[in-house]
Amino acid sequence: MTSLTTREQVPRILATTRPAMPRPAAAAAASALTGKDFMRIVRTRKWLIVAFVVGFAALSGGGYYFWMATAPGWTTFAFVELFPPADTMLTIAPVPQVDLIERYKLSNQRLVKSEKVLEDALADDSMKQTLQYARWRERDPSLVYARKELTKNLQVSSEPETFLIRIGLRTWTNVPREREELATIVNAITTAFVNSSNSFNNNKRNQDLAAIGKEVLATSQRLESVQRQLDDKIRLSKIPDMRKEQSSIQLEMQKLLDRRTDLAVQQAQLAGARAAIEAQDRKNLLEVNPSVMETLERDPVLERLTSELKLVEAAEDRVRPTMGKNHPQWQEYESSRKSYQDRMDSRKAELTEKAIKALRIGYEQQYTTITNSLVEVDDKLTELYTNQREINRAMAEIEQLTEQKDRQEKALETLEGRRRDLELVQQNQLARISKNADLPIEEEYPPKLWIMVTGGIVLGALLGIGLALALEVMDTSVKMPTDITRKVDLPLLAMVPHADDIEEEIEDVRLACLTAPDSLISEAFRELRTNLLFSGPAEQRRATLITSPSPSDGRTTVAVNVAIALASSGRRVLLVDTNFRRPAVTTLFPEAGQAGLSDVLSGQRPWTECVHPASAVPNLTVMASGPLPPNPSELLGHELTAKMLEEMGQQYDQVILDGPPLLMVTDASVIATQCDSTILVVRAGVNSHGIVMRCRDNLGRVGAHVLGVVLNGVQATAGGYLQKNYDAFYDYHEQPEA
């Protein structure tokens, strides 16, 4: 069995289970234009591109010869030499000499196209004698149009590293007089510019002198005012005394800052000591404070009481071994000891309280003294800071006035130098004609012929390719096998060529496998048969639905031919027409009769009575659709349909169902849920990508198992891969076997 393959096909890996819905991201990535697609588009529309290339090349060459034959270009130039004045005449601001010269030349270039220069040129007698002037005058007596034309066409430029500017004019004409008068027009404009430049410069010189005189007077007055302010400030401020006082203030401020630092340290220490006393007081530890202990040790009364207590305790120790506690002498000593002890405790408490109070008062007095000293130091520092600011402000004012005086002196010196330069300049010409315009010379305009033709070819190729790509992008129909595998994301089961591309004359393509078994179309259906047989286990593909998006996409052709191909291989095949609205099986196989599927599903007859063998095809049995029922969708969705298909699958090797169009009615979606698998037939060049993806999504939503797509009616392009494979197929069948 021969299988037609092309370089544009991909390996067919068919799913054996119901596939998941395709991933949108993968489909979008696959739809991108590749280099292979670009070359295919170029091959397909090569004659369009060639037409654009030839057309634009012819237009470029013809345009060149037409231009050169009707209006050749003529150009002439005049040169003007400039004599710039001194730098100070050009500008007051300090600008580099090179920039001054270029700026001066640029100003004169703009002056050439000024309204006054053009008016003077049009008023020249030689200009009025030209044909061009007569045309301008006839079109616009006010000559406004003439000035606009001259402004647009005049070419004014400067010669690098010289004081020359070039004034030129270009025209396209075949009239000799107009060509000769071009130099007259340029010379009239050049003369008007030179006269205007010299006149303007002398007037400008006088205006500059008057303006500089006013500026010198104003600058002198400002300088005198600044000088008086400076003298008064120096006299009142006494600069030497201020500097001496400033030095003294700085020394005193440094001493006060050091003193303030010491006082701050002492204040911090006293604050710490006060905090420690407060902490000891909260913990009742002030009695053991060194200052309190020292006060107790130095008190004479407490010292005397301590000595007497020790005597009583010594006497008590002497009588303790011989006397009991009830002895009067013992009790007298005990009473004396307690009395002395109480007096000592009272004295200690009194001294401790006084010592603590004195300690606190001492810390408070020291803290207050230090705080007052800090305030005095701060007040003195503030006073010194104020004096220093006053001195600094006075010195800054003097320095500012001194700078103003220096600036005014420099400005006055600059103005005086500029005025001297202007006074030295004589009232002579600052521009003169260096070279008058001669007879114009012919230009190579437009560019050379080979450049024009090459540009036309490149432009035509780009436009042709761009139009081909645009047409390809706008055409969303499915045309090639890659459109199925890459853009629709479904397997391609077979590709049926268009009837116009094959050499055989087939009367009815729907019976091609029967009437023309050796044709290219029959070979495509045998390829579909092979892919169907190897698409999975036999029990998972007993009942296969053949459907398509639209009525005329060729689903009946595919269903009948694949049924014939399967039967020819020795398999028992049943072809069932499930299209109640437009049945076709009865037309192709009259032996099918009028009773059919609708009679079976309505319960009028068993299905075995409605099937009839095809007389022309062994192993093929057909079933008609029967009368049109009032409710086809409900009838096909009945549980009898599933039971009938199961019984058919047990008796036949393959059941092929010729279904209705998927997007026209819901019958196809309903019957697809009852079948083991579904094949979608797509008409090349008719169905769009969106329609095919819509069919795929509809089948996916109802849970149908889509085996793949049959691309029907594929047309081969001249020089394309399909045409080469078709030629190879016929060459192979014509060659005798060795």
Give your account of this protein's structure.
The chain has 4 domains: 42-69 and 446-473, no CATH class; 72-203 and 428-442, Alpha-Beta Plaits; 249-401; 477-731, Rossmann fold. It contains 26 helices and 13 strands. It has helices spanning 24-30, 35-44, 46-70, 87-90, 97-112, 115-122, 125-128, 131-139, 144-153, 176-237, 239-282, 290-298, 300-319, 328-424, 449-474, 481-488, 512-515, 520-533, 555-568, 585-588, 597-601, 632-636, 639-651, 667-672, 689-702, 721-734; strands at 73-82, 155-158, 164-172, 431-435, 441-442, 492-497, 543-547, 573-577, 611-613, 620-623, 654-658, 677-683, 706-714. Strand 2 (155-158) and strand 3 form a beta hairpin. Helix 10 (176-237) packs across helix 14 and helix 12 crosses helix 14. It is flat and about 160 Å long. Residues 1-31 and 87-96 have low confidence and may be disordered.
What layout of secondary structure does this protein have?
Elements: H1 24-30, H2 35-44, H3 46-70, E1 73-82, H4 87-90, H5 97-112, H6 115-122, H7 125-128, H8 131-139, H9 144-153, E2 155-158, E3 164-172, H10 176-237, H11 239-282, H12 290-298, H13 300-319, H14 328-424, E4 431-435, E5 441-442, H15 449-474, H16 481-488, E6 492-497, H17 512-515, H18 520-533, E7 543-547, H19 555-568, E8 573-577, H20 585-588, H21 597-601, E9 611-613, E10 620-623, H22 632-636, H23 639-651, E11 654-658, H24 667-672, E12 677-683, H25 689-702, E13 706-714, H26 721-734
Parallel strand pairs: 6-13, 7-11, 7-12, 8-10, 8-11, 12-13
Antiparallel strand pairs: 1-3, 1-4, 1-5, 2-3, 9-10
